[in-house]
Amino acid sequence: MKSFQDKKLLNRAKVFVYISTFVFMLLVIKLFWIQIIKNDEYESAALRQHVKEVRVAPSRGIIFDRNLTRLTNRKHNKVLLLFKDTVKNDEKSLKKIKALTGYTDLELNKMLDTAGTTAEIILEEKNNLDNISINGAILIDKVNRYDEKNILSHVIGYVNESDNIGMSGIEKMYDDILKQDSKYGILTVAIDGKQRLIPGLDVSEVSKQKSSKSNSVKLTVDYEIQEAVEGIIDKSEKNGAVIVADVSSGDIIAMVSRPNIDLLNVDNYFKSERMELYNRATELSYPPGSIFKIVVLLSALENNLVDEDEKFICNGYETIGSVTIGCNKEEGHGEIDIEQAFYDSCNSAFIQLGKRIGAKKIIETAKRLGFGSAIEVGLLETEGNLPKDDELLGPAIGNISIGQGNIEATPLQITNMMMIIANDGIWKDLSIVDSIVTDQGRFVKKINRKDSHRVLSENICKRIKIYLEDVVEKGTARNISINEIGGGAGKTGSAQAILNRKETVHGWFTGYFPKEEPKYVVTVFIEGGHSGSRSAAPIFEEIAQKIYEIEKHK
C-alpha cells in the first residue's frame, strides 16, 4: 500500500516537473522573442513615446529644369516650432515669441488654442534669428515642395501628402522615381509623456535616408522662358494653353495651361466646374478649326489632287446636301487659287478641295501626323478624336475640311504637326523629360526617345512653308510683326465649340520662327478667343520676341 502511494506521489512530482519545465521554456522563448527577435521593434515603439517626428523636407526627389534650376523644393523657411503645453504655461516664453513674431496676445492665444500638440510660425528673414532661446520652442529650417509662384504647376503636378503618392503631372508619371523612404526629411525631438519638449536634450539631425534608386528628374523645360511665357499669357487674362518646342531636338521648352492652379491649396479645385486641374495642353482636346486646313492641303498635295494654278470660286458659303456652311468672308472671296485660299483661310475653297480628296484620305493623313493618338511626351494625354465609319459619310466632309464637327485635337498634337513641317517632314520625338538625375543634379540615365523618321516628303513641306509664311506676311496673321527677329510662319484657326454649356469660338495659332532654319515651334490656344487672328496670333508674336531677347542676353 505504501509503495503504491509512493509511486503516485512520484508520478505527480514528475508531472509537476514537466509542467514547470514546459512553462519555464515558454518563458525563455517569450523572453528571447521580446529581447532578441522583436528588440528593435519594441525599442522603436518605446522611443516613439518619447520623441516627436517633425517633417522638415518632402520625402521626394527634386524636379529640375534643363539647366538644373529647381522646380520643386525651391523655398526654404525658418520656422519656429512651438510645443503648445510648454509654451502656454511659460510667460517668459510667450513674451519672447510675441517680440520675435509681432503677434498680439489675441493672435498668439488663438493660434495655440487651435493647434494640436505643436504649432508652426514662419519667421521673416528680417527677424534676428541668432541665438534664439525659448523654452518649449525650437527653430527649424523647413523645405517646401511647392511655392507661391506656381510656375509650371500643371506639368509638375501635385502629391497626396498623407500617402506620398503623385496624383498628376510629373509627380504622378515619375512617382516611382521621385518617392523617397518615408523617414527622409524627418527631424526628431525629445518629448515627455505629456508631449512637452524636454529641455537640454539635443534635437536629432534631419534623416537623409534615401531609397536605393536614383530619385530626381530633369525636364527639358527652360525655367526663364517658362516664366516669361506664363507672364505673357497671364497679362492677356485668357484661359487656354501654350507650348514652345525646340525644332532640332524635340525638347518642350515651355508648357502653360490656364487657369493656373495653386499647388499649396489643391483641395480648392476638386469640386470646381472650371476643370483647373486639367492640363489644357495635353489632357483636353478641342476642334482645331482652320488649323486643320494644313492637313487637308497636305493630303491634296500628297495625292496630286490640286494644281496650285487652278481657281476656286467662293460665294461666301458652300452647300453639301442639306447642309450649308458659311465662309469666313461672308460676301465671299470670289475667284481664288489654293495659295490665297490657305492664307486667307477660305472655307468654301477648302470644302471643295475636301470633297475632291475624300474624308478617308484626309483622316489617313491626319493619323500619320499624330492626330487621334497620344504623342507620349511624359505626361498624361488624351488622344483627341478623329471621325470614323459613318461619321465620314455625306455632308460630314464639309466639317472635316475645315476642322470642325467630330474632329478634336490637343495643343500638343497641333505642335507635333507643326514640328514635322518645320523639320521638312521629319517626325522628331517630342518630350518634356530629359533624364533621371541625383538630387545634386548628376546624370544617371537618359530618357529613351523614339528614333526620328520621315512622314512627309521634303518637297511638299517646303511648299507648305511658303503658304505658312504667306499667312503671316499677307494673310490672317498679317497683324503681327516679327521681321526684326527673322520673321516666321504659321496658321490661324477659329473653332466653334461649346464652353460652359454655351456656344463660343476658340482661337488658335501655331507656327515657327525664324522663317529660315526655324528654331522654335509655338502653339497658342485661347479658350473663347473668338478669332485666332486677334487672340492667339498676337500672343505668338510676343512670345517669339521675348524668347529672342532672352537668347540674345544669354
Structural write-up:
- It is a single chain.
- With 554 residues, the chain is an alpha+beta fold.
- The chain has two domains: 51-218, Penicillin-binding protein 2a (Domain 2); 223-261 and 280-552, 3-Layer(aba) Sandwich (Beta-lactamase), CATH 3.40.710.
- 34% of the residues lie in helices and 21% in strands.
- The chain is built from 17 helices and 22 strands.
- The strands form eight sheets. Strands 11-10-22-21-20 form a five-stranded antiparallel beta sheet, sandwiched between helices. A four-stranded mixed beta sheet has the order 2-9-17-18, with no helix packed on it.
- Helix 9 (223-236) runs antiparallel to helix 17, helix 10 (293-302) crosses helix 12 and helix 10 (293-302) packs across helix 13 (359-368).
- The longest helix has 36 residues, at 2-37.
- It starts with a helix and ends with a helix.
- The mean pLDDT is 89.
